[in-house]
Amino acid sequence: MAQTAKVVIPSTKREVEIPTGLFINNEFVPSADSNELIHAINPATEEAICSVVAGSGKDIDLAVAAARKAFITTWGKNITGFERSRLLNKLADLIERDQQILAEVESLNNGKPVKIARDFDIGDTIQCLRYYAGWADKIVGQTIEVDNQKKLAFTRHDPIGVCGQIIPWNYPINMWAWKVAPALACGCTIVMKPSELTPLTALLLSKLIAEAGFPPGVVNTIPSLGPVGGAALSAHRDVDKVAFTGSTATGRKIMEAAAKSNLKKVSLELGGKSPQLIFESADLDQAANWACLGILYNTGQDCTAGSRLYVQDSIYDKFVALLVQKAKELVIGDGFDEKSGGGPVVSKVQYDKVWGYIEDGKAQGAKLALGGQKRSGKGYFVDPTIFTDIKQDMNIVRDEIFGPVLSVGGFKTEEEAIALANDTTYGLGAGLHSNDANQCMRVSSALEAGTVWVNQYNLLNNNVPFGGKKQSGIGRELGSYALEEYTSVKAVHWNFGEKLEWPL
Ligand SMILES: NC(=O)C1=CN([C@@H]2O[C@H](COP(=O)(O)OP(=O)(O)OC[C@H]3O[C@@H](n4cnc5c(N)ncnc54)[C@H](O)[C@@H]3O)[C@@H](O)[C@H]2O)C=CC1
Ligand code: BAL
């Protein structure tokens, strides 16, 4: 097949050339042994965009070999932090230059509005790369006094090696940056496997890797089906670490493959069923805005989607009415329509999954306060849907839906609110809204989640760690904490004065 596809952007009629090969050693190449293709679909129209090469297990082997060679020759310990920093900054500049094109292709393949892809996903991506560019020359160990007269020890924070990075489809560019930026800052090399649903922007970003001047093999990109390329990376004996974002079910498989192969280091950012608590002292108008953002941002396809909402009984009716009114105001439509604040869900599979849960909610007796009706016509659109009168054992309350579907319940006391919030196998995000500072402190401490938002929701910062408790994951991304995921601490014990008497 051709090495590039020409894709026309619907709104501007701009023609974008997208590489369609596997990216190994800074070149786009065909598969070594497979003719399989991945067909990228526009979820707003259900039409094909183009096809790209689907990498095989053999292609993963070649990419890992390229990454290993780069690690021991041009990257790893063979390049200074200053140079890694310069290259990361250069990459950020190129993404900034191309942000409109990247946003349009992201919207075409994922469905999200162009303006959101550009101003949020890509804006954050550029900042993430610059943030870790800042760290690249500051990765330092410690000097540890052992015996002033004779011995000391020091630590080196070595790059961990070749990293497999497996990313999802909900934030294709942004999750790419969260993985790539800290790994490169630490001196690791990468084999990236984007989601088979959204491979296009990872290929455009790979082109920018070469343009920025990263040595061949430092970043390799293999679009591939999860059970093929993702499984091969997780089980590979020459991969030192796998970083993953996606479902808890797949996270389990990755951990198992790591355990059964070479015990590679694993970090997992998994699913969630995140609660938001609305206390009676809260600014209700603001709380309703944040609650809407929590469940409707990215059409609910967010690992921290605030999909369970518990409201104090004294304000329940008033708050639910406000919430429904605000949720109705969001326009879900084609990502190329300026009016759209949210796009379709990403695929037919995801569409069917979300509708399956909406039907479950109705069948199990939850009350529909908003939505719940399918649209006619093309596109995987799901309008904001709010269920009230929920019970904790309903499927809509227990399972991650990954769509714009909110379950609302009530509570009397703070203790009850905390118990309801923590009644889940997940522990990714949680939110609370209250104007009582002592209550905010007590409740934020009691909530079992890796991130707790107080009087806001869903906003993240590149310098603040992110990750899950319970079955929402292992390890942390972002901030200085992410550096620990990509480094291996070596202790060097140095003797400058002790004489060993022998035999003992
Ligand atoms: N935490 C998050 O941000 C995400 C959560 N999800 C959840 O997962 C549900 C299902 O979505 P999927 O796309 O099927 O998620 P998934 O977890 O299967 O896919 C995420 C990534 O894992 C890869 N993958 C799949 N099987 C693999 C395997 N055996 N070994 C290694 N990698 C593998 C996929 O190719 C993709 O790149 C969603 O409805 C949502 O609930 C999905 C995407 C992101
Ligand atoms: N919003 C943080 C990352 C995720 O949803 O996968």
UniProtKB/TrEMBL annotation:
One MF term in the entry's GO annotations: aldehyde dehydrogenase [NAD(P)+] activity
Entry keywords, A to Z: Oxidoreductase
Entry similarity comment: Belongs to the aldehyde dehydrogenase family.
PANTHER family: ALDEHYDE DEHYDROGENASE-RELATED
Domain Aldehyde dehydrogenase, first and last residues per copy: 31-492
Annotated source species: Boletus reticuloceps
The organism's place on the tree of life at top rank: Eukaryota
Claim: Cell membrane is one of the keywords in the record: no
UniProt name for this protein: Aldehyde dehydrogenase domain-containing protein
PROSITE patterns named in the record: ALDEHYDE_DEHYDR_CYS, ALDEHYDE_DEHYDR_GLU
Keyword Oxidoreductase: yes
Pfam families per record: Aldedh
SUPFAM superfamilies noted in UniProt: ALDH-like (SSF53720)
Active-site annotation: E269
